[in-house]
């Protein structure tokens, strides 16, 4: 694969990945739905709802979520491109999130090794800045890269 300059481009190697947009708030989920003009399609809950996990705990915040619409396992870039297209009609509502609502894009990737390649185009960060939202990455590695021993990372630079 080549990039726009005709150079060989690095391909992401995450065997499992996905991306989504989320709004969190202490306000009820119905208030987020009302502001956005639609219900989310990902994992959504309202402040005070009971968690599905055993123990009967309740959520201390509301979460509204919109998935990328791309099947899991495709490169993060594909998820982000699709997610921005899905968010485009909601752009003004996102840029004008009221006080008490915070928006963020999250990328999740599972890798066999910390040496596997990952590609996230720089334009995705610029788009998040334009939308005035956070950009979070959660990456997991099969070779336990990043785990700590005695309170310090086990790798040395």
Automatic annotation (TrEMBL):
<protein>
    <submittedName>
        <fullName>DUF4279 domain-containing protein</fullName>
    </submittedName>
</protein>
<dbReference type="InterPro" id="IPR025459">
    <property type="entry name" value="DUF4279"/>
</dbReference>
<dbReference type="Pfam" id="PF14106">
    <property type="entry name" value="DUF4279"/>
</dbReference>
